[in-house]
Input
Amino acid sequence: MGNNVSENVEKKPSEEAPIEVVIVGAGHRSLLYASYAKLHPEQLNIVGVVEPDGERMNLTKERFEIPEDNCFADLEEFVRRPKMADAVINGTLDHLHVATTIPLLKAGYDILLEKPIGVGADEVLQLYAEARRYGRKVMICHVLRYAPFYESIRRQIADEAIGDIVSLTTSENVSYHHMGMAYVRGKWGNKDRGGSSMLMAKSCHDLDILTWMKGDVRPVKVSSFGSLQQFRPEKAPAGAGTRCMVDCQIEDSCPYSARKNYIEQRLWRAYVTYNKHLGVSMSDEELAESLRTESPYGRCVWHCDNDVVDHQTVIVEFEDGCTATHVMTGGVSKPGRSIHIVGTQGEIQGELEEGYYVVRHPDARQGHVYTEQRVDLAVSKDMHGGGDLRLVEDFIKVLRGAAPSISSTALEKSIDGHLIGFAADESRLEQRIVELKGVGV
Ligand SMILES: NC(=O)c1ccc[n+]([C@@H]2O[C@H](COP(=O)([O-])OP(=O)(O)OC[C@H]3O[C@@H](n4cnc5c(N)ncnc54)[C@H](O)[C@@H]3O)[C@@H](O)[C@H]2O)c1
Output
């Protein structure tokens, strides 16, 4: 597929001109990152799009005033053309990440690639080998590293504020309405459809945070438990139907009601109404009709084709003896992420959504137990605690040759978290501890 890199005329990013980028997969995530070009046209220019969905392609073309000639329905067609931009934003779905990225590397593009890098350890390591072979930069959209909350904690660790890390505990609580939309009814509810387990689709950020906090200390052993406990037909409450707005007798009292979540509360409209991310709106009446008829989001959460877990716990041992635990739970009332890092000289604890964390140190003076310093941060409620567009900003800097930032999500620095996730799924299914020794980069 595509050209050999040597056949392309190398186009190098210039100091003054905006970085030129082609979108591959004009879905929700790519368009979110591409919105940076509207805010900072002097830094980023969207010059092309590859998208098989004709409507999405045209809407993207209009939004960024992309010449017709630079719009492609097919990746092969695009990579056959001489290199026409500095980089690509690859926002295709999980199972296409590696298959679409390799030809792009070969064609000479640097890449901002959505997470997860791939859907299995072998293909992730294959991608790493190909990126090295073609000498390209690949950054992974581990946007939480750029959220001020996590970045500030990472700096405390780098500054040795709590000594060496002894243990890390993180949790991710996925709300009932997010769970229902994405991991039961939606794109990531079924592993064959979405390509990823729920752990990799949802918590690969958190597993990445664990390895990022540990710096160069490698994870060596992984164990995990979890199951699909709640959203199965035999757990359906009496009176539940197949579609909320068609044959359900308990719709009025059900928190997963499609009518309440998507029409009344207007939650997740970008997902349940196709192409909202490209400015196409759907009236409430049209949405109601689709939820009653063909929309997967109108289905009863106990009667879907979902097969991914609804909760999972992962335990990791690092090579220095440090241990880490991540608990992912779907269906909670109050969503959020928490972190507690205990070091040899102190500890850090916080919840992302609260907008602050605390640093504690032992204080053995009479009448004292510990000191506590509160660190407040400007935390936005959306865009992953403010991380999404800061990632794009850093990607542009990296393309211009800047040194990697503390948050840098370079491919080679993003693999260990993925290896933990794949091993956790193996451990969960095979009921055994999985050793990571020798697998990494
Ligand atoms: N970083 C994060 O926090 C975060 C959050 C949500 C989703 N994601 C990830 O982002 C990715 C995209 O998710 P989304 O919700 O934007 O998906 P989406 O379905 O909205 O977009 C994917 C697009 O890719 C297009 N496509 C399919 N095959 C293609 C091909 N061969 N070449 C080019 N385009 C092709 C589809 O038509 C679609 O428009 C997924 O991998 C998802 O797991 C990341």
Summary: The chain has a mean pLDDT of 93. The chain has three domains: 5-114, 145-231+308-383+410-435, 236-298. Residues 236-298 form one domain. Residues 24-29, 50-53, 56, 75, 91-94, 96, 100, 114-115, 141, 143, 201, 384 surround nicotinamide-adenine-dinucleotide (CB under 6 Å).
